[in-house]
Amino acid sequence: MAKQFNVALIGNPNTGKTSVFNQLTGLNQKVGNYPGITVEKKEGTCKLPRGVKAHVLDLPGTYSLNASSLDENVVIELLLNKNDKDFPDVAVVVADVENLKRNLLLYTQIKDLGIPTILAINMADRMKRKAISLDIPKLEKALKTKIALISSRKNQGFDELKELILNYRELSTEPCMDALTFAPEYFDRLKKAFPNQDLYKLWLVITQDVNFGKIERNNSDLIATFKTESDSNLKRMQQRETIKRYQFINEVLKEVLVVDTANAKDLRSRMDRVLTHRVWGYVIFLAILAIIFQTIFEWASYPMDFIDESFSSLSEWIKTSMPAGDFTNLLAEGIVSGLGGVVIFIPQIAFLFLFISILEESGYMSRVVFLLDRSMRRFGLSGKSVVPLVSGTACAIPAVMATRNIENWKERLITILVTPFTTCSARLPVYVIIISLVIPDEKLWGVFNYQGLTLLCLYILGFAAAIGSAYVLDKILKMQSKSFFVIEMPNYKVPMPRNVLTTVFEKTKTFVVDAGKIILAISIVLWVLASYGPGDFNKAEEIVMQENINNGLTEQELEAEIASFKLENSYIGIMGKALEPAVKPLGYDWKIGVAIISSFAAREVFVGTLATIYSVGSEEEEPIRDRMAAEVDSMGKPIYNFASGISLLLFYAFAMQCMSTLAVVKKETNSWKWPMWQLAAMSVIAYITALISYQILK
């Protein structure tokens, strides 16, 4: 047992598999992608009794081994390829005690593969409340395995589960049922043609689109005469297999499972009637969103002010404590100011992920998906499209990847193209700082903060833009399509603090690290471009002194004029002035134009770019918001006024501004055609909307 062995965690969605994974691995886990594909791979180390360690792989959720998506294909490919380094020595199938019948379908299929399999029945703490009783010894005998009753919420049963994992070699690998009797003639012919193969594995290879190792065939005339079945016949046999398995499961559960519904204390049905109501469901959902955005502004303002002032103080300390020179200026004006423009938004992003995680953990998000499905049909989408659109509020990249669960190509393509309209967390830094500058910090009816309401409106606007665009694309794209929407409603539950905090930490860390890399690189480039220039840049002091010789400026005012002249005549100033004619009709100056162009790398770079530009040559280190508020045009009017602020908000509500999203769209559609059309269309919509809004409001 000295060698670390592999454990595969497998189960249906909403069985608490992720919670079980977190309990087994603790903080000894990492998240990545499977090689060559965009499916998330979670793995960790589990400490077992007697000092043994196991490598635990959390496989994507799947209802059965009859795959209909890329996520499910990953599960099947791993279970069929013994040469894979992650091939499991033991499989742990996680089942929900309230949905045991459906969960056991997947269990019986995995058991038939000859892999040592443990059944972990989760949420056992609900059995008493739901009046459920199970005869575990009898169920173990019927399923020919060992069973662990666990509760990830109460951390119960995990010692027993770890002991079973440790002793996996003692588990029976005998199939719990003879599944091949659903098509005896077909399997007789299959056995003669491929005598060296496990027939059930071969059946999965034939019916699923998976990458399987070399098949050893019998060198006889039977291979040549073996008749391949049509797709429709194979589908019918798959259906017969499923029916046969459920017949077996029903017979087993009839003997071991008792549910006394008369004594069950269940609020779920009553809550569902309210939360999925045709009218009140939408009202409640909007109210929840309003509360979320109110708290994002109210709670996050204190840590944000502290972070902003801390970075300003750090920048000033660097200038006063280190020797004067280019390196000190780069550090204080470029790197510190640029990174400060991102770190300041950690509180808002953490709060956003916190609330989204709570909604998902509680089971409410599934109700939202079901509720919105009613509205999606008329726009050429289905309820499955809601999942990417809702998850797009965190980040468009995993949201685009989530479209893999949509079988219909037209629906999937439309969902991919419109998902970037939904307001992602990268837009939040831009929204928050612009809203704080142009929207008064006052309350409607003494309750609702205008800034929070504006943020809510931007989220609704993004979702409306996605739905409207989907409707247009549905009419433009001439593809035949038909699909059905099925969703499982998980039970309501109190979110587990550990799961919520782990999600918030991981997602916030990913946002900061990914954004930080880009902003650090761009901040250095921008500082160099803003600190050097040709021609008049090198004669700044002489030219400014000559122009203001009779103006009686103080020394401080003169230094400010020189810094401003240098910035305008630097390389970045020259580039910005060239861009200014294009952005001036929108109410922007050349500095905002530079920030918009640089933010094509990532939306959140906008604030970091302005922080760097406004810091160059400045002796006083003020918080970025104060510097933006002090910016004036040639007429002495604030650059960031109501008209230009609304114009900027609308521009970022519609613009793509994310190269990473375009790269993922290219990968998911296998063509540059769609991301280029997406970029062009969203940029045109953003520009025209911003132009019209500014011209009306100015």
Q: Outline the biggest β-sheet.
A: 7 strands, mixed
What does the radius of gyration come to?
A: 30 Å
Q: CATH fold name of the largest domain, please?
A: Rossmann fold
The largest beta-sheet arranges its strands as 2-3-4-1-5-6-8
> What is the molecular shape?
elongated
Low-pLDDT ranges: 33-38, 212-225
Structure in words:
With 698 residues, the protein is an alpha/beta fold. The chain has three domains: 1-264, P-loop containing nucleotide triphosphate hydrolases (Rossmann fold), CATH 3.40.50; 280-476, no CATH class; 499-697, no CATH class. The chain is built from 29 helices and eleven strands. The strands form three sheets. The protein has a seven-stranded mixed sheet with strand order 2-3-4-1-5-6-8, sandwiched between helices. A two-stranded antiparallel sheet has the order 7-9. A two-stranded antiparallel sheet has the order 10-11. The longest helix has 42 residues, at 280-321. It starts with a strand and ends with a helix. Residues 33-38 and 212-225 have low confidence and may be disordered.
Q: What topology emerges from the helices and strands here?
A:
Elements: E1 5-11, H1 17-25, E2 29-33, E3 40-47, E4 53-58, H2 70-80, E5 90-96, H3 100-111, E6 117-122, E7 132-134, H4 136-143, E8 146-149, H5 158-166, H6 184-193, H7 199-207, H8 221-225, H9 231-256, E9 257-259, H10 268-275, H11 280-321, H12 326-343, H13 346-362, H14 364-376, H15 383-391, H16 396-401, H17 409-418, H18 428-438, E10 443-444, E11 448-449, H19 450-476, H20 497-531, H21 540-547, H22 555-568, H23 571-583, H24 590-598, H25 605-615, H26 624-630, H27 642-654, H28 659-669, H29 673-697
Parallel strand pairs: 1-4, 1-5, 5-6, 6-8
Antiparallel strand pairs: 2-3, 3-4, 7-9, 10-11
